[in-house]
Amino acid sequence: MTQRSQVLAPLAAVALALLAGAVLIAAVGQSPLEVYGLLVQQALGTGYGVGQTLFKCTPLLFAGLSVALAFRAGLFNVGAEGQMYLGGFAAAMVGAYVPLPMPLLLPLAILAAALAGALWAALAGVLKARFGAHEVINTIMLNFIAYALVAWWGRSLFMPATVRTRGIPEAAHIARLEVLLPWLRGSPANFSLVLGLVLACALGVFLFRTRAGYELRVLGLNPGAAEYAGVRIGRAQVLAFALSGALAGLGGTSFVLGYKHWFEQDFTAGAGFMGIAVALIGRNHPLGVCLSALFFGMLAYGGLVVNQRVPADLVNVLRALVILFAISAYALFERAARSARPKPAAAAPASEASA
Amino acid sequence: MSALGVLLFIAATLRITVPYALAAAGASLGERGGVVCLGLEGFMLNSALAYVLGAWYLHDPWLALACAVLAGLATAGLHALVTVAFRADQITSGIGINLLAAGLTRFVLVTVFHSSSNSPRVPGLPELPLGPVSDIPALGPLLETPLVLIAIVLVPAAAWLVFRTPFGLRLRATGELPAASAALGLSVGGLRTAGVLLCGALAGLAGAWLASEQHCFTDGMTGGRGYIAIAAMIVGKWHPAGAAAACLLFGATEAAQIALQGSSFPSALLQALPYAVTMLALAGFIGRATPPRALGTPYDPEGA
Amino acid sequence: MSAPIVSMRDVTRRFGPVVANDRVSLELRAGEVHALVGENGAGKSTLMKVLYGLHPPHAGTIEVDGSAVHIDSPAAAMKLGLGMVHQHFLLVDTLTVAENVVLGLERRPLIGNFSPADAERAVAELSRRYLRVDPQAHVSELSVGEQQRVEILKVLYRGARVLILDEPTAVLTPQEVDELFGVLRSLRDHGTSIVLITHKLAEVKALADRVTVMRGGRVVGGGLASEMSVEAMAELMVGRVPAPLGARASRAPGVRVLEAIDLRAADARGLPAVVDVSLGVRGGEIVGLAGVEGNGQHELVECLAGLRTATAGRVRIAGIDVTGQGARTHSEAGLAHIPADRLKRGLVAELTSAENLVLGRQREAAHGPWLGGPALEARARGPLAEYDVRPPDPRARAGRLSGGNQQKLVVARELGRAAAAGFKGEARRPACALIAAHPTRGVDLGAIDAIHRRLLAARDAGLGILLVSSELSEILALSDRILVLTAGRIVHETSPAATDERALGLWMTGRATFIDTPLEPSRASGAPRRGSTPDPGPRA
């Protein structure tokens, strides 16, 4: 694809999805313009709205980076949801039950989130590397198992008559962004967003300026060439999954350490799956993922706001439509680019003569 | 457990296996043509809702069944459009379709029934009294359930279609080496689409069964069965009958899950059981299988 | 003198800015074998693909049986009686021979009962009359020669009067070539017309009635095969008389840099592909490994390069035992590798030329954990210019380069490892051994020459090279020693001075006991098939 179509295709996909969403809005008897207008105005028009948008954007950023990293390695991490869930749970457990003072407790809780996500994803990675098992189905199964596990632990760990865990002491709180930016007053946006942005930069550097990142990209683009280049495929896949899972796990810290200061059942609310759309629109590039996460964050918050007029699930529908339109657009743009180009002389395939 | 108890368990297993078997057989048809059918979950979910909507508005469970099949066809049609016509990535399309179904069904649930968790009660498919059959202990009532009968007929029919008809021959050839079919003047896109649509139709029946048994639609009621059916298809080596047989394992797991509910067995672990079994199955403890060679590769007539 | 069955006039076909066929005219008569001859990229395959309906012509007319036709698909071509036997067989492994033949023309209702037995019955008559293949066999069980016969059956079943064969002998042993030619002669005598696309001029002389020579998309000559000499055809094909490589400097070879000891390996299906192979390459020598594709070269090379685990035996590089280790260990021990399939192994199409130049050397090129950026691009300019890779832009995506330039890129990279100076300019231990697998496949003539010269220069500088190729001319031109690999075993060792293409060809079939029996299933044909080990016969 040309440079221009790299940006054009995702925009086209988003536009088409919004159009389809407009049809749905009209179908329930509302005016699409009004609804979309309200959505944008609430999400970006006030300081509080921007803050909420940023808050919603944070887990999407982590999930998007997670899925993008996996995609770059040729792997599909559909388990970001479960990894984020377990990451949040681990952070809450460490935060609430480990008796350590401030400078130590917070980093430890954050580390726990990353570790939990990493281990949960690595499980799928090992199954793939060792048995060649389908990582898509396995990560989805692990999502279900994660929910079940937490529900089981929750029976003894949740506060009575609630679905949340014990409150986390101040020592493990992530400060709200409004501390630095007072016009975001009242919103739950917090410094985990900064962590996310830092990680996005780090991912960019990793992918394009390090040897390990180079090997990961080669693995995703051409596994045969990766093997030729000396990459140990199985190990690389597990590592890629672990890193991906760590990023997803960290996505849980925004809610658990920066907002409610406890773990709550179903707190992820589909952020892990939204991460797939974020990564696709962001073309698996850290910068693209940041912008894409912002857009989807806006949609997510806006969807809550227009809830009286249109069910909030509109946003989930848009998410899915974006995925479908995006892959369609990419495929079509790719075909258009290929037929415009002259075919270079193809290499003959290797020894097997039967096709 | 008494003999009757065993029979009851077997009957329950067979009953629960029906949606899995239909879905898995359907998936094997689609995948034999070379298209990954991970959207199975979404096909089933949309069909379940369509059944409930059909039963609610048309007051006839058989028409509702038809609605479910149509919904399955429509959803599968979308998958075919994206993967065959546009040649986009098949796995991502499947995931996208599942997410679309999840969001769309909830959207409709809230809009039409004003609830975010379940629809009101609707009639299920009626039993078909077959006289003396109903006297067979435990298994009798099973055979009188229409969708069980349909499954008993359709699964072998699917196997016959794949292995004993020219259509099946062409479908299999397309799934192994689309270029071979194309060079002989066959339509790769047409064959693949046919396979996917058949998958949608069978998934439609599976979704209808789920809704009919529960007599309502609940949010997310497929609960991962579509993915489990895919796993069964892999274990069954992409053979419609083998896939359906593999589904018995998962049906038995779910039946055990229901039977053990309320006992001292930790409920959450029970909940996780079908998914854990699926992962074990995929890890190859139940034999390795080779997929159709062109599975997952979009067919490009211009390419090598 | 028969009227033309097929007449193509002024046919033009473009791919973007490249004119693959430039006002090409061709006449095909009934009952003749017409050879269409030219180098890679001359346009002969394209012309036949236009005839077969795979590519519409941008200009020109096609007539079949005297009336103008518009062929827009293979189905249309087949209806007109045209049949194509592709270079890379389009056979479905999991189906039987009969099922492959009748696919698409089952003569039954689409949703009607149709068993494998029905397919066999449809094919039995044809098979009995023309060719000897077991209709019940699964394609996966057949030898290459037999598979080709199934392709021909497919075409005959559909009533083809014109057979187009695209490089049919590329994958056959000389024995199988003789069998094929027998079949083609018999078909010709029954009135079928045959177009033989090839660049092997000896075959043209052996089989063809008339010849058409193409170069650069145009017809540059033709006539009766009996009246044209091989040299004349070669000159037309190439446009000049190819210069000989010149006398080689003789050189005393050094220590063993690459060794295989009693190596055994299995192919993708678990059948034995490499059986008790022992060989050694010394520094400063080129060892040529001759053999028809499918006789174990692929598996042998992969074992030597660390891309496949041998089932028995040892591999040593520069004396270090690297058996069972991955590609990285082999590489660090001093092995460079030009892979047989550059798109599958040797390059990443989406990455830039600069990034591809460090594929396999990324650890060496990295500064600690860091790799990439402007430093990488700067480093790439030298090799790209030196090896005349076009375009010499380090940021060009490798997938956009032509096949020849891609191969030059790979050669630049691998031969660069033999240089004494490393990435950062400091001295380091250079690669001492190179495996060059089909190094000039799909490459145009000018580039082939350049690559050959580079290989010889590297050899003179002390590199030990294992050259694997199915082009006997290449093996004879470059090697100091020649080994023949047949059915997984080394069956013969010789030197270029002591042998020629004909003799090597015979060794490549293992001088097996071939008896011309009618209508026997594959086992008796004697053609080496994957996994079988025919009697190698008496050694010279």
Supply Rg of chain A.
Answer: 21 Å
Largest interface (CB within 8 Å) is between: A-B, 52 and 49 residues
Residue-averaged pLDDT of chain A: 88
The percent range for strand residues of chain A is under 5%
Flag low-confidence runs of chain C. 511-540
Structural class per helix/strand content of chain A? mainly alpha
Instruction: Report the major sheet of chain A.
Output: none
Amount of beta strand of chain C: 15-25%
Distance between the termini of chain A: 28 Å
Oligomer, anyone?
Answer: heterotrimer
Identify the overall geometry of chain A: globular
The largest sheet of chain C has its strands arranged as 6-7-8-3-9-10
**How confident overall, as mean pLDDT of chain C?**
83
Outline the structure in words.
The complex is a heterotrimer of chains A (355), B (304) and C (540). Chain A has 14 helices and no strands. Chain A has helices spanning 3-27, 32-45, 47-72, 80-97, 102-131, 135-157, 192-209, 211-221, 223-228, 233-250, 253-258, 271-281, 286-305, 314-340. In chain B, helix 2 packs across helix 9 (188-214) and helix 3 (61-85) packs antiparallel against helix 4 (90-113). Chain C has 540 residues and is of the alpha/beta class. Helix content of chain C is 31%, strand content 24%. In chain C, the strands form 4 sheets. Chain C has a 6-stranded mixed β-sheet with strand order 6-7-8-3-9-10, with helices on both faces. In chain C, a hairpin with a 2-residue loop joins strand 4 (59-64) and strand 5. In chain C, helix 15 packs parallel to helix 16. The longest helix of chain C is centred in the middle third of the chain and has 16 residues, at 174-189. Chain C is globular. Chains in contact: A-B, A-C, B-C. Chains A and B meet through helix 5, helix 6, helix 12 and helix 14 of A and helix 4, helix 10 and helix 12 of B.
In a few lines, what is going on in this structure?
The complex is a heterotrimer of chains A (355), B (304) and C (540). Chain B is an all-alpha fold and 304 residues long. Chain B has helices at 3-32, 40-58, 61-85, 90-113, 139-143, 146-164, 166-176, 178-183, 188-214, 225-235, 240-260, 267-285.
Using brief descriptors, characterize the structure shown.
heterotrimer; A: 355 residues; mainly alpha; 71% helix; C: 540 residues; alpha/beta; six-stranded mixed beta sheet; globular
Strand and helix map with partners:
The complex is a heterotrimer of chains A (355), B (304) and C (540).
Chain A lengths: L2 H25 L4 H14 L1 H26 L7 H18 L4 H30 L3 H23 L34 H18 L1 H11 L1 H6 L4 H18 L2 H6 L12 H11 L4 H20 L8 H27 L15
Helix pairs in contact in A: 1-2, 1-14, 2-3, 2-13, 3-7, 3-10, 3-12, 3-13, 4-5, 4-6, 4-10, 4-12, 5-6, 5-10, 7-8, 7-13, 12-13, 12-14
Chain B lengths: L2 H30 L7 H19 L2 H25 L4 H24 L25 H5 L2 H19 L1 H11 L1 H6 L4 H27 L10 H11 L4 H21 L6 H19 L19
Chain C lengths: L3 E12 L2 E12 L3 E5 L6 H8 L7 E6 L2 E3 L4 H6 L2 E4 L11 H6 L13 H15 L13 H14 L4 E5 L7 H16 L3 E6 L2 H7 L2 E6 L2 E7 L5 H9 L17 E11 L5 E11 L3 E5 L6 H9 L6 E6 L2 E2 L5 H7 L1 E4 L3 H5 L6 H4 L5 H4 L8 H13 L16 H14 L16 E5 L7 H16 L3 E6 L2 H7 L2 E6 L2 E6 L6 H8 L32
Parallel strand pairs in C: 3-8, 3-9, 6-7, 7-8, 13-18, 13-19, 16-17, 17-18
Antiparallel strand pairs in C: 1-2, 1-4, 4-5, 9-10, 11-12, 11-14, 14-15, 19-20
